[in-house]
Specification:
The complex is a heterodimer of chains A (311) and B (302). Helices cover 74% and strands 1% of the residues of chain A. Chain A is mainly α and 311 residues long. Chain A has 2 domains: 2-66, no CATH class; 70-306, MetI-like (MetI-like fold). The two termini of chain A are 43 Å apart. Chain B is an all-alpha fold and 302 residues long. Chain B has 15 helices and no strands. Chain B folds into 2 domains: 14-61, no CATH class; 64-299, MetI-like (MetI-like fold, Orthogonal Bundle), CATH 1.10.3720.10. The chains are: A mainly alpha (311), B mainly alpha (302). At the A-B interface, α1, α2, α6, α7 and α8 of A face α2, α5, α6, α7 and α11 of B.
């Protein structure tokens, strides 16, 4: 009996080894990228331990002394802790407010009868996606200064010139509106792709039953893209506490700092400018953990309520 | 098509008129900021600040461009970015395309684990400082190589490429080649690669745009100005307001001089914005169908 099972096991092992051998070239082909990903994505994970240590470059990552949760406590007791978190959340929420607009815009595009005009409109609205963050931010700064485009236009309505970049309360709206400009067209691509799958027969049937165009959109098209919309919404929810560093950093100045210091810019200030490596890593780690919790939570909620999720 | 449907196509309702005009209006609003930068860069700076160039160029001048062309760091940045973009994109492609192909092979042992190995990196990373320390250890600080090889594989792009290989090339094709005695490598180079031209185009563009537009890595890892990529130079000129070499040779009063200098600096910013975005915006109409295609491949669940 036991002899038999061993021989079966042996058989399985040899078969497995044969399969491995047959795929040797495949492994060779994927090896370079495995190594690169290991170096640039996995080795830094080893460095995360300095969040719990007092890192000294003379002692190295491994040799530095453990200090437990000290840096996390420092962060929670940081006088501006509440403000940094609030700023991050507020900017994300303002951006989230623009979420329905690409959905509406793609429903509108989808109703266009003139195919050529539709293509042109799509092409033009995609373009801002390719304008770099640096250029977008410099355009914002140029447009919002006292002599800038926005103040010129407001001037026609008799509004006095405002220095928007110096105004804390304007920071989050500027961030979200410029984000909408960059992403409006690009975000429609995914909805348009889904909308192209709406069954024409269903639309015809609805029309024969006397449905108006608005009713077709509301009862046929919208339900069809519901799943995609929810998926995109979850992805957005998951990044609620991860306001991008690049744009915030570029738009930040001493006048709007009240509203523009977010977790990411604080990590940069503490870490690279003040060289407090351990403290900065701890803040970053805290941020990633919250992000992961958020995305899992958003996914669970959407699975319960809408029966669709990312996984 | 039935007669009824045809007649419906020709009838333009109020709904169509309103909908189409709204879409066109939104498109115009989206296009306007870029348009304004272009006309402002060709106009007299004083006219721009007085709001007389909202629709068309006023007092056409190339003064701003004259100064911009003397700005040497801009051209150094331009040259650096071209080098980083070409080499970096090539490096990304060499890593991504074969890996994506291999990950479609369901019969390969550990295929699933390997997929997760890449997938996890989308959500979990070391963060700014551990990344920095690693590059310091590797001697990549202040080294232009970091801008070329520092990014490696983008997991998102890998998934999109794998999706393409899995959905557009039927596994039976390979089966036939195996029977004829072709090796796995041969299958990749002579069957998969020729069929994958569209996705290779998409990936080239995705990675290329990423390299062209990126400034973060240079900001963190590069200190020497001669290695600065275009975007970092732009940031220094446009946002940090480092002095540009405007030197007006005129015998006017000091205040007027300063005012004019300030206006010239503004005008230069508009022209720099145009020069920096021009290459992408010019080739963009020709390649945009590929970009859109990439997003669509990625959105297919699988």
């Amino acid at each position: 009996m036991s002899n038999q099972s061993i021989s079966i096991n042996k058989n399985q092992v040899t078969r497995f080894l044969k399969r491995l051998y047959r795929c040797r070239m495949l492994y060779l082909m994927i090896l370079p990228s495995i190594i690169t990903v290991f170096i640039f994505h996995y080795i830094p994970l080893y460095g995360v331990q300095i969040a719990f240590k007092d890192f000294r470059s003379s002692l190295g990552i491994w040799g530095s002394e453990w200090v437990g949760l000290k840096h996390f406590k420092t962060f929670f007791n940081y006088p501006y802790f509440g403000r940094v978190i609030w700023n991050t959340l507020w900017i994300s929420l303002c951006s989230l407010l623009t979420f329905p607009l690409p959905v509406i815009f793609s429903l509108m595009l989808n109703e266009m009868r003139n195919e050529k005009l539709k293509k042109v409109c799509q092409m033009i609205t995609y373009a801002p996606h390719f304008v770099s963050t640096v250029v977008v931010c410099s355009m914002i700064i140029l447009f919002t200064n006292r002599e800038g485009l926005i103040n010129i236009i407001l001037g026609f309505f008799g509004v006095e010139a405002i220095d928007f970049m110096g105004l804390s309360s304007a920071f989050a709206p500027i961030y979200s509106i410029s984000g909408l400009w960059s992403g409006l067209g690009w975000s429609t691509i995914i909805y348009m792709a889904t909308l192209s799958g709406v069954s024409q027969e269903l639309i015809e049937a609805a029309k024969i039953d006397g449905a108006t165009r608005m009713q077709v959109i509301w009862y046929v098209n919208l339900p069809h893209i519901k799943g995609t919309v929810i998926t995109m919404f979850i992805l957005n929810m998951g990044s609620l506490l991860s306001v991008g560093f690049e744009k915030t950093f570029l738009l930040q100045n001493s006048l709007n700092q009240d509203a523009s210091s977010v977790i990411a810019t604080y990590v940069y200030e503490i870490g690279l400018l003040n060289q407090q490596f351990s403290y900065s890593t701890a803040i970053g780690l805290f941020n990633s953990i919250v992000n992961i919790i958020m995305i899992v939570a958003a996914n669970t909620i959407s699975k319960k309520l809408a029966h669709t999720g990312l996984w | 098509m039935t007669k009824q449907a045809k007649s419906k196509l020709h009838k333009t309702s109020a709904f169509d008129v309103i909908n189409t005009s709204l879409v066109v209006l939104i498109t115009l609003i989206v296009a306007y900021p870029l348009y304004f930068c272009i006309i402002a860069s060709f106009s007299d700076p004083t006219q721009v600040s007085m709001g007389r160039t909202l629709l068309w160029v006023k007092d056409f001048t190339l003064e701003a461009y004259k100064y911009v062309f003397q700005e040497e760091r801009l051209w150094v940045g331009y040259r650096n970015t071209i080098i980083y973009t070409v080499l970096g994109t090539l490096y990304n492609l060499i890593l991504t395309i074969p890996a994506a192909y291999v990950l479609t092979k369901k019969y390969m042992p550990f295929q699933n684990i390997l997929s997760w190995y890449y997938f996890i990196t989308m959500y979990i990373g070391g963060g700014m400082i551990p990344d920095y320390l690693l590059r310091k250890e590797l001697g990549l600080l202040n080294n232009p190589l970091v801008l070329i090889i520092g990014t490696g594989v983008s997991c998102y792009n890998l998934i999109v490429t794998r999706q393409y290989f899995a959905s557009s090339i039927h596994p039976d094709i390979y089966e036939a080649a195996y029977i004829d005695g072709a090796s796995e490598f041969k299958c990749f180079t002579s069957i998969a690669m020729p069929l994958a031209k569209p996705i290779i185009a998409v990936m080239t563009l995705y990675y290329g745009v990423d390299h062209w537009n990126s400034y973060y890595n240079a900001l963190i890892y590069i200190r020497k100005e001669k290695y600065y990529p275009l975007q970092l130079v732009l940031r220094n000129i446009l946002i940090s307001n480092q002095n540009t070499s405007v030197d007006l040779n005129t015998d006017i009063s000091v205040i007027e001089y300063l005012l004019q200098k300030q206006h010239m600096a503004q005008a230069m910013k508009y022209s720099i914005i145009f020069i920096a975005s021009a290459p992408l915006l010019i080739i963009y109409p020709f390649i945009q169908k590929y970009f859109a295609k990439g997003v669509m491949i990625g959105s297919v669940k699988g």
